[in-house]
Amino acid sequence: MTDPIFHNEAKALAHIEAQRWPDGEPICPHCGSTHITKMGGKTQAGMFLCNDCRDKFTVRTGTVMERSHIPLHKWLLATHLMAASKKGMSALQMSRMLGITYKSAWFLCHRIREAMDKANDTGPLGGPGKVIESDEAFVGGFKKKRLSGNVAPKKKIVTLVERGGPARSFHITNIDHTTIRAALVTNCHRSSVLMTDDARFYNNIGREFAAHGTTLHSNREFSRGDGHHSNTAENFFSILKRGVIGTYHHWSAAHTHRYLAEFDLRYSTKDKSDTDRANDILKGMEGRRLTYRRIGLLAA
After folding, report:
1. pLDDT recorded at residue 300
2. Do 138 and 246 belong together in one domain?
3. What Å distances lie between residue 40 and 57, 67, 72, 100, 300, CA to CA?
4. Could you write out the DSSP letters of every residue in 210-275?
5. Fewer CB under 10 Å: which end of the chain, C or N?
6. Among residues of the chain, what percentage have pLDDT more than 70?
7. What is the largest CA-CA distance in the chain?
8. Which domain holds residue 44?
9. In whole angstroms, what is the distance from residue 128 CA to residue 190 CA?
10. What is the pLDDT of residues 179-194, one digit of tens each?
11. Which of 13, 19, 20, 123 is nearest to 62 (CA)?
12. Strand 48-50 vs strand 36-38: parallel, antiparallel, or unpaired?
């Protein structure tokens, strides 16, 4: 946390510009032109003028940071903290560390998760000779442990994990053949080997892949020596559930997909350093917008 980009606004601006425009030439987010003039003065610091469309823009324009009044060095610090926190970081903790209101921190974290979702979109999972594991989980609290008895229903989650590769999770309404098949065939190469438990709806789905291996969880068989298991997906769920129970405590159904994107990205980039992961998130910010009005409507 001693890096100047987390404390100095000018260095933070230079870092974000370098990540967005690595060639050193700003590109107009309005028309795509490279005929750009850098503006100066105290009131126009960090601003550019497009000589073709004549629109002005900054490094924030066309990203999740657009129209945000939070300083860039705090954006970088928040991004690094979320990239480095294995089980996530609550908005309340973020507000204390950044010195901003809880409301601002909550919205800031969701915008970073929106960028994480794009950063983890690296194309279909698997391929020839690769193994994909699919498993489902119920995420949420236990009604019997609440004194009031009022607790939101558990969220149904399906996660697809490529062994030695990325993970992709989805909040689904039903755990059945139609829903699980849609998640698999739209996100995985059919040439992959599919590994699952013995849920009956996988029988027909497995025929669409190069091979299908199962373990009989109903008989307490969780692994066989020939590589038949879905323990990689189970390991992902163990981290996910620790994050829910220990950090966030509750996810609204309207925002569950963003929380899943956060855990997916950290898992998919587990071999990268925290700095490289944070830079991937910065690149994922481009082309994404999330307004407070829109996020409020989703939660309504």
Report:
1. 44
2. yes
3. 13, 20, 18, 29, 43
4. SEEEE--GGGT--B-TTS-B-HHHHHHHHHHHHHIIIIIS---TTTHHHHHHHHHHHHHTTTS-HH
5. C
6. 94
7. 72
8. 7-59
9. 9
10. 999 999 999 999 999 9
11. 20
12. antiparallel
pLDDT tens for residues 13-54? 999 999 999 999 999 999 999 999 999 877 788 899 999 999
- Check whether residue 138 and residue 52 sit in a common domain: no
Alpha helices in the chain (DSSP H): 9-20, 72-84, 91-98, 102-119, 177-187, 202-206, 231-243, 256-268, 274-284, 292-299
Question: Does 82 map to a domain?
Answer: no
- Does residue 92 sit within a domain? no
pTM for the predicted model, two decimal places:
0.92
CATH code: domain of residue 46: 2.20.25
Starting at the edge strand that comes first in sequence, how are the strands of the sheet with 131-139 ordered?
167-172, 155-162, 131-139, 193-196, 211-214
